TrEMBL record:
Residues 4-141 form the UspA domain. InterPro entries: Rossmann-like_a/b/a_fold, Universal_stress_UspA, UspA. Homodimer. GO terms for cellular component: cytoplasm. Keywords: Cytoplasm. It is found in: Cytoplasm. It comes from Marinobacterium aestuarii. Belongs to the universal stress protein A family. The keyword Cytoplasm applies. This is Universal stress protein.
Length: 146
């Protein structure tokens, strides 16, 4: 019996994300699991609120399009088939939690730098995903790309 049926890999689409590929595919392969990808876009309005006297819609759409292209290209580098690719908008950790609950994910995989303050062990997002997740969380250590 497989330990994991539905695995979700959270990617920030930085160059470092490639370091998550090999282990994720190996785990998905070994468990014969469905593998999905998620990328969360934090809306510009979160950062700028009503302070910017311009319509951010077009810039936001361009960011979404760019993320879609990058996620497709990332998925193409995986040796295990990708069942779904999700681009969602909101707060990163909350959206990952919500997605895991709604899609019955049993393992969520994130990258971990261990360079942020408290998080000598886990990066800030990895830490946030771990706290509040209702499924297993695997934090894969990534090396910063200089
Ligand atoms: P951080 O702690 O922000 O450096 O990110 C560590 C890991 O969290 C990344 O390798 C991803 O697995 C995940 N992550 C960070 N930002 C996002 C995002 N916007 N969408 C999806 N996953 C993310």
């Amino acid at each position: 019996m497989s330990a994991y049926k539905r695995i979700l890999l959270a990617v920030d689409l930085s160059e470092e994300s490639d370091q998550l590929i090999d282990k994720t595919c190996e785990i998905a392969e070994r468990n014969n699991a469905e593998l999905s990808l998620i990328h969360v876009i934090e809306p510009l309005s979160f950062a700028y609120g009503g302070d910017v006297p311009m319509d951010l819609t077009t810039i936001q759409e361009q960011l979404d399009d760019h993320a879609r292209v990058k996620l497709d290209s990332f998925a193409a580098r995986l040796s295990h088939p990708v069942t779904h690719k999700f681009i969602v908008s909101g707060h990163t950790e909350s959206e990952i939690h919500r997605h895991c609950d709604e899609h019955s994910i049993d393992l969520v995989i994130v990258g971990s730098h261990g360079r942020h303050g408290l998080s000598l062990l886990l990066g800030s997002t990895a830490n946030g995903v771990l706290h509040g997740a209702h499924c297993d969380v695997l934090a894969i250590r990534v090396q910063p790309i200089k």
